[in-house]
Write a structure and sequence with these properties.
The complex is a heterodimer of chains A (about 475) and B (about 180). Chain A is an alpha+beta fold and about 475 residues long. Chain A has 4 domains: about 80 residues, Uridine Diphospho-n-acetylenolpyruvylglucosamine Reductase, domain 2, CATH 3.30.43; about 120 residues, Uridine Diphospho-n-acetylenolpyruvylglucosamine Reductase, domain 3, CATH 3.30.465.10; about 110 residues, Alpha-Beta Plaits, CATH 3.30.70.2190; about 140 residues, Alpha-Beta Plaits, CATH 3.30.70. Chain A has 17 helices and 18 strands. In chain A, β5 and β6 form a beta hairpin. In chain A, α13 packs antiparallel against α14 and α15 crosses α17. Chain B has about 180 residues and is an alpha+beta fold. Chain B has one domain: Uridine Diphospho-n-acetylenolpyruvylglucosamine Reductase, domain 3 (2-Layer Sandwich). Chain B is about 30% helix and about 20% strand. In chain B, the strands form 2 sheets. In chain B, strands 1-2-6-4-5 form a 5-stranded antiparallel β-sheet. In chain B, strands 3-7 form a two-stranded antiparallel sheet. The mean pLDDT of chain B is about 95. Classes of the chains: A alpha+beta (about 475), B alpha+beta (about 180). At the A-B interface, β9, α7, α8, α15 and α16 of A face β1, α5, β5, α6 and β7 of B.
Chain lengths: ~475, ~180
C-alpha cells in the first residue's frame, strides 16, 4: 500500500487531497516561480489527526512540509517532490482570550488579522502586521518570525509570543514558554521555517490599541536627505510606530495605482507614524516636524481617514509595481540604517548594469529593504539576470554589516545567499541543530540552510567567472 | 586585543574542562555604538556600569533588567531572561571545538539561519564561550521600569533531552562546566 493510500484510509474523508488537479493549488507558496507537486496534501482538523499523519509519514520515511496560508515569499512552504504537505488552515480557532493579562491562546491556522479582530472589543490587538496579514496564519508567522511595518516600536513575532506547544516528528508534545529557565528554545522556534517542529498551539501577547495615530508624509528632492532624515528622527529620541521610505519610481507607481496625493516630483518619500495618547503624539509630532523641516512637502494626517489614505499608497506599492511589469522579484535584505543612501546608489548602479528597473520600498526605520526588480519571465534569460541582480543586492547587504533576509525567510530562494553570509562551520552548526530536533531529517528538509557542497560548488563557480571579490568578512 | 580571541580559541582547544567567567575571559570594551542605530556591540566582559555610562551620554538605556552594575554583560546573557533575549541581535562565540563563529548581527530584523544568538541566552556558559554581543538599546524615555525576569524550572523530559543534544552540538567534548 502506498503512503497516499495509507493516509486516505487512516483519516476521515476530505482530509487527504490527492491527484494532479486537486494538489495543484498547493504546488507553490507566494514565490510562484518555483513549483512542485507533493504526493498528497493533508488538511487535518485536530491534533490527533496531525499525530496520525506524522506517524504514517515517519513509518514511510516521507518528508513533511508544513503550510499555513501559503503566503510566504521564499518558497518555505513549497512542496518537496516526494513529500506530504501538512496544511494547518483548518485549525483556525481563537481558543481563549485573557484580556487582563493581554494574552490569547490560538490554533496555528488562525489568520493574523483574525486575532486582532477577536480581541478588538477589549481594546487590544496583535501588533506584528506582515503585509499579508489578512491571509497569513499565526503558525506561519512564528515559523518565519514575520515582521511588518510596526516592528520598530512593537517588535517582531518573536517578541510577541508568550508560549507555544509544538510536536516533534515523533508526535511528542513540547510546550515552550518565555518563563522557562534554560536555553532559548522558544526563541529558536521563531524563524525555524518548519524544520524543527510543528506548532500546534500558540499563546500570543496582545497590545493595547493606541488612542490615536497620526502619520507625517515628508517628500524630499534628494534620496540622501530623505535617508538622513530617518537617522535624524531616531537621533532625536523618537521611536515612530512606523517609518517607511519609497523612491521616485515606487512613488509614481503607488500614486498611479492608489491616487492618494503623493507628490510626483519628489525623489523620495517618507511616511512616519506616531501613536499613543493624544499628548504623547503631539509631543512627538512637534519634534518630528522640526527634524523634517527640510522636506519639500510636509503633511500631517488630520483625520483617521486621511491617515489610512496616506498609508494606502505605501500598502499598495507591490500590486502597483505589479501593474507596470509582467513580473517582479522582491528582495528582503536588511542593513544598518546609516548605509541607506549608499545602498540606494549602489542599487541604481546595478539597475543600469543589468538593464532592469527597480522600485525601492523600505521599512526604513529598521533598515529592511524591499527592492522590487521588474522583469519579464517570458523573455529568455531575464529571470536569470534578475536573480543575479538580486544576489548582488544581498551580498551588498551582508558586506554592509546586514543580512540577506529581514523578514521573509530563506526557504529555497536564498540558499545560495546563505553561503555568502555564513561560513561552513556556522552552516554545520545549523545542520546539527536540526538533527537535535529532527534526527531523520523529515521536517521540510533541504530548506533554510544550504548543504555545504552547494556552497562549495557555488564558490567554484564564482572563481570560474572571476568574481569572488569578497574575502571572509567580519560581520560585527 | 584582537589576538585575545586567538588566545581563547587556543585555550579552549587545549582544555578538557573549563569554567567560563568574566575574569577568565578578560575581554572587555565597547566595540561599536552608533546611537542612531539603537544598537551596541560589546565584548562580553564589559560591565553593565560601563554600558550604562556610554548610553547615558546619548540619553539611551538598556532594555533589560540587571540586578548588579558590576557584573558583565556576558554573565547577564548567560543567566538569561525574557528581556535580554528580546534585546539580543547577534553574538560571536567560541564553540567547544575552539571555532570562532558569528550568529545574528547588528540589525533589528534578521531571519537568516536559526536564531542562535537567542538560543544561547540562558545557556549558563555550558555551550560556548560568548565573546561578543550586539543588542538593541532605546531612548531612555521609551524604557519603562524594568523588573527581574520570572523563571520557572519545571522541565519535561523531552526538553531536557533536547537541551542535552544541543549541548553536544556546541560542545561535543563536554568541556564547558
Amino acid at each position: 500500500m502506498s503512503i497516499v493510500q495509507e493516509l486516505s484510509r487512516a483519516l476521515p474523508k476530505g482530509i487527504v487531497i490527492t491527484g494532479e488537479e486537486n494538489t495543484r493549488p498547493f504546488e507553490c507558496d507566494g514565490l510562484s516561480v518555483y513549483r512542485q507537486k507533493p504526493l498528497a496534501v493533508a488538511l487535518p482538523e485536530s491534533i490527533e489527526q496531525i499525530k496520525q499523519i506524522l506517524k504514517i509519514c515517519k513509518a514511510n520515511n516521507t518528508p513533511v512540509v508544513t503550510r499555513g496560508a501559503g503566503t510566504g515569499l521564499a518558497g518555505g512552504a513549497m512542496p518537496l517532490e516526494k513529500s506530504i504537505v501538512l496544511g494547518l488552515s483548518k485549525l483556525n480557532k481563537v481558543k481563549s482570550i485573557d484580556a487582563e493579562n493581554q494574552l490569547a491562546v490560538v490554533e496555528p491556522g488562525v489568520r493574523n488579522i483574525a486575532i486582532s479582530e477577536a480581541v478588538a472589543e477589549y481594546g487590544l490587538y496583535y501588533a506584528p502586521d506582515p503585509s499579508s496579514q489578512i491571509a497569513c496564519t499565526i503558525g506561519g508567522n512564528v515559523a518565519e518570525n514575520s515582521g511588518g511595518v510596526h516592528c520598530l516600536k512593537y517588535g517582531l513575532t518573536v517578541h510577541n509570543i508568550e508560549s507555544l506547544t509544538m510536536l516533534t516528528m515523533d508526535g511528542e508534545e513540547l510546550t515552550l514558554s518565555r518563563q522557562d529557565d534554560g536555553m532559548g528554545l522558544l526563541a529558536l522556534m521563531n524563524g525555524s521555517e518548519g524544520l524543527l517542529g510543528i506548532m500546534i498551539e500558540i499563546t500570543v501577547k496582545l497590545t493595547p490599541t493606541p488612542q490615536l495615530a497620526r502619520v507625517v508624509m515628508a517628500a524630499y528632492d534628494s534620496v540622501r536627505d530623505c535617508a538622513n532624515a530617518v537617522a535624524d528622527i531616531i537621533k532625536a529620541g523618537i521611536i515612530p510606530a512606523g517609518l517607511e521610505m519609497m523612491d521616485k519610481f515606487a512613488i509614481e507607481a503607488a500614486e498611479g495605482f492608489a491616487k492618494v496625493g503623493y507628490p510626483l516630483d519628489a525623489q523620495a518619500l517618507l511616511l512616519c507614524e506616531l501613536d499613543g495618547s493624544e499628548a504623547q503624539v503631539q509631543a512627538e509630532l512637534d519634534i518630528v516636524l522640526k527634524v523634517l523641516s527640510g522636506a519639500s512637502t510636509l503633511k500631517v494626517s488630520e483625520s483617521e481617514e486621511e491617515r489610512l489614505n496616506l498609508w494606502k499608497g505605501r500598502k499598495s506599492a507591490f500590486p502597483a509595481v505589479g501593474r507596470l511589469s509582467p513580473d517582479y522579484y522582491c528582495m528582503d535584505g536588511t542593513i544598518p540604517r546609516r548605509h541607506l543612501a549608499d545602498m540606494l546608489d549602489k542599487i541604481n548602479e546595478l539597475s543600469e548594469k543589468y538593464q532592469l528597473r527597480v522600485a525601492n520600498v523600505f521599512h526604513a526605520g529598521d533598515g529592511n529593504l524591499h527592492p522590487l526588480i521588474l522583469y519579464d519571465a517570458n523573455i529568455p534569460g531575464e529571470l536569470e539576470r534578475t536573480e543575479e541582480f538580486g544576489t548582488d543586492i544581498l551580498k551588498l547587504s551582508v558586506d554592509m554589516g546586514g543580512t540577506i533576509t529581514g523578514e521573509h525567510g530563506v526557504g529555497i530562494e536564498k540558499l545560495n545567499a546563505m553561503c555568502h553570509q555564513f561560513n561552513n562551520k556556522e552552516l554545520e552548526t545549523f545542520h546539527k541543530i536540526k538533527q537535535a530536533f529532527d534526527p531523520d531529517s523529515l521536517l521540510n528538509p533541504g530548506k533554510a540552510v544550504p548543504e555545504l557542497h552547494r556552497c562549495a560548488e557555488l564558490g567554484a563557480m564564482h572563481v570560474h567567472h572571476g568574481e569572488l571579490p569578497h574575502p571572509e568578512l567580519e560581520r560585527f | 586585543m584582537a589576538d585575545r580571541i586567538a588566545q581563547l580559541q587556543a585555550l579552549v582547544q587545549a582544555s578538557s574542562s573549563l569554567h567560563i567567567n568574566t575574569e577568565w575571559l578578560d575581554y572587555a570594551g565597547v566595540v561599536e555604538y552608533y546611537p542612531e542605530e539603537l544598537v551596541m556591540t560589546v565584548k562580553a566582559g564589559t560591565t553593565i556600569a560601563e554600558l550604562k555610562k556610554q548610553l547615558s551620554k546619548n540619553n539611551q538605556s538598556l532594555t533589560f533588567y540587571t540586578k548588579d552594575d558590576d557584573v558583565s554583560i556576558g554573565a547577564v546573557y548567560a543567566n538569561g531572561g525574557q528581556d535580554i533575549s528580546d534585546s539580543v541581535l547577534g553574538v560571536q562565540i567560541i564553540d567547544g571545538n575552539g571555532e570562532a563563529l558569528n550568529f545574528g548581527g547588528q540589525v533589528m530584523k534578521n531571519v537568516a539561519g536559526y536564531d542562535v544568538s537567542r538560543l544561547l541566552v540562558g545557556s549558563k556558559g555550558k555551550l560556548a564561550v560568548i565573546t561578543q554581543i550586539s543588542f538593541k538599546v532605546l531612548p531612555s524615555t521609551y524604557v519603562g521600569e524594568l523588573s527581574a525576569p520570572i523563571k520557572t524550572n519545571n522541565n519535561p523530559a523531552l526538553r531536557v533531552e533536547i537541551e542535552q543534544r544541543l549541548k553536544s552540538v556546541f560542545d561535543p567534548k563536554g568541556i564547558f562546566q
